[in-house]
Amino acid sequence: MTQPQSPSALPGPALRPVRVGLVGAGPWARAMHARMLAAGPETELAAVWARRPEAAEEVAQQYGARAAASFEELLDLCDAVAFAVPPAVQAELAVHAAKAGRPMLLEKPLGADLASARRVAEAVAEHGVMTQLVLSKRYHPVTREFLRRAQDATVVGARSCYLHGAFLGGDFATPWRLEQGALLDLGPHLIDLLDAAVGPIATIRSSGDSRRWIELTCEHANGAISQASLSGAVHLSRARTRVELFGPGEELVYDTAELDHEECWPVLRREFAQAVRTGRGNGIDAGRGLRLQELIAMAAG
User: Fold this and answer.
1) 146 in the same domain as 126
2) Claim: this prediction has a pTM higher than 0.90
3) What number of other Cβ atoms are within 10 A of residue 168's Cβ?
4) pLDDT digit string (tens) for 39-67?
5) Does one domain contain both 160 and 249?
6) What is the pLDDT of residues 220-262, one digit of tens each?
7) Is residue 266 within 8 Å of 171, Cβ to Cβ?
8) How far apart, in whole angstroms, are the C-alpha atoms of residue 11 and residue 96?
9) Lower CB density within 10 Å: C or N end of the chain?
């Protein structure tokens, strides 16, 4: 396996795009990863590999990329790897990518369970590779302003929800989501926001059924209490994500109802390319993914 030349080491007045290999060719790979990486200018979609060669070929052709015949060939064709596959598949292949020294754009959750997530984080640490986690809301300017304001607030309690109906049918009613439910799929997003906005979560417990509706109660290290409602199986006209922070000051509210999620992708792409070039990430990485998976495992009991 060849080691690609660092993008920052190339001659010329302008840096060439980071060549990213995409693992996966399913609905999320097509809707977000492929088109985001191909849009550039910071990155280019160099290659696509999937378990279904015809699906990989279709995505690759659309963006002028190569369809890799194997995961090993994909690694040879790229500077960095992006994953858009089920958690169990990501956890297995990410360990191999880390051993090959490839920076990675990882999906949440990091793995299908805590043990596999820990193996990914350990491989990343052992081989010193840069990682970035696709907690998509974290890349929106409105989210970042909310978290900035939350740092200056005294919070004693919080309420939050992440609700949609994607599990009821359609492209995202995938086997792992239907089996694991909202805690593993939506939980990383909402738990991440509560942990960042209110303060580090010390304990978390749950009630309900993750495949229908699950309630989380979090005790934070600073003494605050937060609650989170999660479901992917309720009929709504659009997904609903809302966080309300309460304390002695004014209520602070984060609501995605009016957000244009398309604003997330250029930020994510730019920060990933910069991190690949410099080897310095933004902190939303495999370590963060493991922290969230530990909290999910705690909630699951």
Assistant:
1) no
2) yes
3) 12
4) 999 999 999 999 999 999 999 999 999 99
5) yes
6) 999 999 999 999 999 999 999 999 999 999 999 999 999 999 9
7) no
8) 30
9) C
Query: CA of 181: how far to CAs of 25, 80, 175, 232, in Å?
Result: 22, 30, 10, 7
Which two three-digit tokens encode residue 166?
Answer: 């994607």
In CATH, what number is assigned to the domain containing residue 64? 3.40.50.720
Query: Residue 157 is which amino acid?
Result: G
Q: State the residue range of the domain holding 226.
A: 141-258
